[in-house]
Design goal:
By secondary structure, the protein is of the alpha/beta class. 42% of the residues lie in helices and 16% in strands. The protein has one domain: Alpha-Beta Barrel (TIM Barrel), CATH 3.20.20. Strand 2, helix 3 and strand 3 form a beta-alpha-beta unit.
Length: 213
């Protein structure tokens, strides 16, 4: 993959079995964290915009860790999409879907993984050209059983389940034909960040390679 051309959502999903959902409160953590994940074989990194440090962290990773592909999570508005792209994000992940957000990500050149939890939301996203979707919150909304039910009517949609996914249950999702990868925050435990325990984060990333798609 040419790392500088515009990414598709499918490329974002196919790079590794897990997209880490990253919540950072300290910009000093961004670069060592990104390097630790890359060392463990994970380079698609979703840094959420739910903290004030999200954007500066995206910027720091985009500048200092060219081996990583940084994206923005918790993208909910046109302003979020524009700010994420300006900071150097290459993709966006959202907890839900609106037409305005879909258009804003297209305008900003960001691949978007829109969040859905119901059939109507899938149909709306699909109508507007999105066929690779985040299923959120995955465990709370119905888990692997719901995805299996969706594989009938929504046979042409592929999902990244996120929310309550762990190393232990990720395999149940990845075994499904309509799942390409999963998302989860377990790769970046807050206490490992606080302690600067980058080796632990690399080990958590490496452990996901046993997960097979
Ligand atoms: C989120 O956006 O909060 C993600 O879904 C992370 O969920 P998790 O913490 O349950 O992995």
């Amino acid at each position: 993959m040419n790392m500088q051309t515009k990414l598709t959502a499918l490329q974002v999903m196919q790079d590794a079995p897990v997209i880490p959902v990253i919540v950072l409160n300290d910009v000093a953590h961004a670069v060592p964290l990104a390097r630790a994940l890359v060392a463990g074989g994970i380079r698609m990194l979703e840094v959420t915009l739910r903290t004030a440090q999200g954007l500066p962290c995206i910027e720091a990773i985009a500048r200092a860790v060219p081996e990583a592909v940084v994206g923005a999570g918790t993208v909910r508005s046109r302003a979020d999409a524009q700010a994420a792209a300006m900071a150097g994000a290459r993709f966006a992940v959202s907890p839900g879907y609106t037409s305005a957000l879909g258009q804003a990500c297209r305008d900003a050149g960001l691949a978007l993984l829109p969040g859905v939890a119901t059939g109507s939301e899938i149909m709306m996203a699909q109508e507007e050209g999105f066929t690779e979707l985040k299923f959120f919150p995955a465990m709370q909304a119905g888990g692997p059983a719901l995805l299996r039910a969706w594989s009938g009517p929504f046979f042409d949609v592929r999902f990244c389940p996120t929310g309550g996914v762990t190393l232990q249950n990720a395999g149940d999702f990845l075994a499904l034909s309509n799942v390409v990868c999963v998302g989860g925050s377990w790769l970046v435990p807050p206490e490992a960040l606080a302690q600067g325990d980058w080796a632990r984060i690399t080990a958590l990333a490496r452990a996901t390679q046993a997960l097979k798609k």
